[in-house]
Amino acid sequence: MQIQYIFELIGTLAFAISGALAGDERQKHDWFGITFIAFITAIGGGTIRDLFLNSYPLVWFKDMNIVYTIFLGIIMSRLFYKKFNQLKLTLMLFDTLGIALFTIVGLEKAQSLGANDFISVVMGMFTAVLGGVLRDTLINKTPTIFVQEIYATACIIGGVIYLILDDLQLDRNINFIISGSVIAVIRIIAVKFNLSLPKFYK
Amino acid sequence: MQIQYIFELIGTLAFAISGALAGDERQKHDWFGITFIAFITAIGGGTIRDLFLNSYPLVWFKDMNIVYTIFLGIIMSRLFYKKFNQLKLTLMLFDTLGIALFTIVGLEKAQSLGANDFISVVMGMFTAVLGGVLRDTLINKTPTIFVQEIYATACIIGGVIYLILDDLQLDRNINFIISGSVIAVIRIIAVKFNLSLPKFYK
Amino acid sequence: MQIQYIFELIGTLAFAISGALAGDERQKHDWFGITFIAFITAIGGGTIRDLFLNSYPLVWFKDMNIVYTIFLGIIMSRLFYKKFNQLKLTLMLFDTLGIALFTIVGLEKAQSLGANDFISVVMGMFTAVLGGVLRDTLINKTPTIFVQEIYATACIIGGVIYLILDDLQLDRNINFIISGSVIAVIRIIAVKFNLSLPKFYK
């Protein structure tokens, strides 16, 4: 089994938990609602990427491990949600792992399907962030990518670094780890020091 | 003409009416707005299913009867909306017929395109409920599947029963009627006795 | 280079600006957020059309001029947003140019892919208006097509006129200009005289 595949499952787990806990804030969602939101959060980004790239079958249609992983995340959320909510930091780290892994997974997939550099970086970022955009839209929140700390930007920077190192013929596995780490480190630093992008309009 | 096809048109009519009346609650939509919402409600679920399954052309692109049926639903809504709104029960029954029929139609289509059991049930449920999710998101309501009585769950149960009976080699038409009826009966009982799924978080 | 292609780029620029300025109303979006909304507004309609028509690769995946045009629109918005907001009329004219051009571009594309007349008109209208629907949904506004002056209706009328003139064997370029002008004129008259469609329910 490829190391990337394990990373993808870990990212899926992280996003499923983040989706299941997003419902918690309103306290009103039933079992179906939470399951639905967890799925959308975990597979939404990759699904939109695959629709855009005309890549079929969709990943979760052919790989039941993705589905089992999401159910695992839902069950973990139910069992440990009090802990998880105390441990906002743990959650943020999971989510950070998720976007770091999904960005590179999505970028590599777009590249392998012949997308140019710009589109590959965008598809990597979409894979990482669009599940969260759908989650927030469904629960009528302004998507966090619009109002929060550096998030999608970290994915874009990491994607660009991946492309540069790839151009320099760096080994793909090492590149994956370096670029993914860059994304994670940028996000963590941004959260820790409360950094954000400048507002577009002053 | 297949009996399933007639069922599909009846489901389409029911959803078009439900979409056209959803706009009514706010009283501000014009003719275009209502038409748009009625279409999204009636074809949204099937369209997303077909995009996910890579099944082209989309049903409403090749079959104008679907389109005529939706316009019929819009005209009926305009003529009878006072009656319809008095008769919430009638409407709920139409909607219940819609989800029962669309679930099995969607499940069978996914199966015929080679989807596994899990995905087939999910595609059936998506066909039934996603039009309503889009409708609610467009008019800025929290999608009813998240807050209401047993709804999507009835579709999932009916889908699973269809698969079990299909495995037992039951005739497809009889199976369609039995599984669809299960969905309808569960929904009606849930509404009548105000049953709902347990909240995910206590 | 075809005249239509230049029209498409002008329409893209107009929509990118309209998207970038939509974020302004809330004053809180950062650089990434504005860029994201500008892209969605400019390419959302065409992307949904292409997904529905199974037309790959998506336009913006293969033509970087579209991407450069959107970035140009974003930069122009930043430089001139005070001017733009004083000049609501200028903006409305840009947007009107956008829907006029995108309607005919989308209609012709659908036709060339074998869609029937009804679907071609709908695809033209979708190309013109769905980017704005996504923009409004993302920033939690009721989509303007539901509440404002004659907008999508102008696209539909222009599309129908295109089909009629096409049936009469009118030269395609002349037809493009006539039908597009009809859309623009209807919209401008509707704005000037504050015309709107009748409400669906009295």
From TrEMBL, chains A, B, C:
Primary location recorded for the protein, binned into one broad class: membrane
Compartments it resides in: Cell membrane
Keyword Glycosyltransferase belongs to the record: no
Keyword rRNA-binding applies: no
Transmembrane segments: 6-24, 31-52, 64-81, 88-107, 113-134, 146-164, 176-195
Pfam family, one: Gly_transporter
Domain Glycine transporter: residue ranges: 6-81, 93-165
Membrane topology: Multi-pass membrane protein
Keywords, in A-Z order: Cell membrane, Membrane, Transmembrane, Transmembrane helix
Family the UniProt entry places it in: Belongs to the UPF0126 family.
Name under which the protein is recorded: Trimeric intracellular cation channel family protein
Native species: Faecalibacter bovis
